[in-house]
Amino acid sequence: MLDSLSQKFLLPILSRVVAPLARTRIRPGAVTQSGAACGVLSGVLFFAGFRVVAAALIVLSGLLDLIDGPLARAKGADSPRGGFLDLFCDRLVEVAVVSFYALTFPDIRMAAVALLGATLLSITIFLSAAAVAANNGPRSIHYLPGLMERGETIIFFALFYLLPDLRNIWVPLFAALIGLTVVQRFIESWRLLPSCKK
């Protein structure tokens, strides 16, 4: 949801941030990879007990993920390979964060399994629709909006890290909201896609 809104409200701000970066030798792919590294490292550091640093890193990961696409378009370097790398890195961070969190707190492992399962279903629907739907937007694939998107994920992960005593609320709540996103995206995909070839 926040990702979709950001395209309307944050685009002018992102353009001002990205404009000077576009004149440098910084590659969009390097930004994507740096964001993934920060996200995975946040899980490791949280497991090691550095909770505030982990929270800062996951927020930085989200910010880098926010600018890599606009930077690629500003440089004229957007490509299917870049879109593929971005999607892969997003999932890598999500799996790393939830896995290290479950290793830290065994009491939420079943909720973590439900969270990863809901995430798997959500991204399956997202990619299935993107594979066959016409893409008329600025992104590398057709983008199917949802209740829980990347922005909400980063916020929840930061809450996981900063308020771990409430983990038995955050993790099931996030899993349930992604479950609602699965239902939402399934209905929207069913409506969007034709029932037979023309």
Account of the 3D structure:
This protein has helices at 2-9, 11-22, 28-47, 51-74, 80-104, 109-132, 150-162, 167-192. It is built from 8 helices and no strands. It has a single domain (2-192), classed as Up-down Bundle (Four Helix Bundle (Hemerythrin (Met), subunit A)), CATH 1.20.120.1760. The relative contact order is 0.13. By secondary structure, the chain is mainly α. Helix 7 packs antiparallel against helix 8 (167-192). The longest helix has 26 residues, at 167-192. The mean pLDDT is 88. 77% of the residues lie in helices and 0% in strands.
Largest sheet: none
The helix content is over 70%
What value does the average pLDDT take?
A: 88
β-strand percent reads under 5%
CATH superfamily: CDP-alcohol phosphotransferase transmembrane (TM) domain
Catalogue the unreliable spans: none
* Rg on CA atoms, Å: 17 Å
**Domain unit count:** 1
CATH architecture: Up-down Bundle
What's the shape?
Answer: globular
Terminal CA distance: 32 Å
Tally the helices.
Answer: 8
